[in-house]
Automatic annotation (TrEMBL):
Required for morphogenesis under gluconeogenic growth conditions. GO terms for molecular function: LPPG:FO 2-phospho-L-lactate transferase activity. Pfam families: CofD. One of its GO terms (cellular component) is cytoplasm. The chain crosses the membrane at residues 16-37, 57-81. GO terms for biological process: regulation of cell shape. Belongs to the gluconeogenesis factor family. Keywords: Cytoplasm, Membrane, Transmembrane, Transmembrane helix. HAMAP family: Gluconeogen_factor (MF_00973). Its main location: cytoplasm. This is Putative gluconeogenesis factor. CDD domains: YvcK_like (cd07187). NCBIfam families: CofD_related.
Amino acid sequence: MHLLKWLYPGMKFKRWLLLFSLGVIISSVGLAVVFNYKYVGNLEEAIFRMVYLTTGTYYYTVTTIVGIAVIAAGLSLMMLATRQIIRSVISVLIPEGSERLVDLIFQKRKLNRGPAVTVIGGGTGLSVLLRGIKSVTSNITAVVTVADDGGSSGRLREDLGIIPPGDLRNCLVALADTEPLMEKLFQHRFGGDGDLAGHSFGNLFIAAMTEVLGDVEKALKESSKVLAVRGKVLPSSTQRVRLMAEMTDGTVITGESQIPLVNKTIKRVFLQPAEVEPVHSALDAIREADAVILGPGSLYTSVLPNLLVQGVADALRQSQAVKIYICNVMTQPGETDGYSASQHVKAILDHVGPGVIDYVVVNSQPVAQNLREIYASQGAYPVYVDNTELAVMGVKVVEANIISETNLVRHDPVKLSRTIISMVYDLKANSERMRLLDYYLIAENIKELKD
């Protein structure tokens, strides 16, 4: 049945099959002209005599039946020949077979027409969204924080003087369209007690590519080819930065990994150095997007570090894209203790100013009681959605069931991506209707002036 997939809309195959058929017909007519029509007439007469003597069927019925049979035979031969040609090519290029090729072509044709989406954040939350949204569009750019200083990323950052590769690696794997073995390889962590212990192979791979090519953007681009990544992964900056946090009691904490551990209330976060050069292709992706999504992820240590990079917030304000903030489902101990949805939004606006959020997506599905108890024991609680306060801020609220409850409360990649893409398409349709209405009103005004 997979052969029928070649006839799916958007495959751009049917037009060439039709052209192939037309070529066969024209060639057939040419052959008839070259060899003289009488041979065709003789063949027709012979077929008529044979069928008439056998069945007694009249001339026109005979020629119709025989003609249809010949057409069917010709089409069958064409399809068989086309299939064998394709198989011959596929056996060399894609050993997995023609079904895999059909799926790839359909996927590329369909996804390349999807909306341009730029996602800003870091950590596991960003990876969750990317896993879902890559099934809807391949026009994705992930702008990733470079403030991570813990684990394997932190060690490579200090030892090699590079930006931390961990969040970049997670985003590459999330957007990958490759074999499960390759994904496992990139996520593999070395065991033992040696210098490699705890390091991720993917982190080492990105670090090696950066040293070989001398540029982290080129390293990510080449790594994307290895993993067959849909879209692009970019750091918000290529400079080494430290995330700092000033607490309400006046103390200052250094390092992204240390901020949640002090269990104090955060007043503000900032980067050191303060003037951090952005990656210009990341700014372009924000300006040219149909939608820019902030989060999901840790508010102070994943989302805000990107917005604090010079030029990022301004590019977001200048962009014509719809700006969507995905609010966390649960509060995060040491970062957002007791925060409501409006307090998450307020923290972003207090740091970078207005104009960076149009919509906030919040979870509407109640969290199961057993999970609430588990999270409560760790100091985390469902984020309260205070619609009135959000409305006062001028932010529109979209409530949806966007969580997956297993043994953890996490955003569900499929539910979340469907919600986001539905918003984008609805808003684009409304924008188009408003644009047409504007044209109509302008035309009416011009008509009135002429009159």
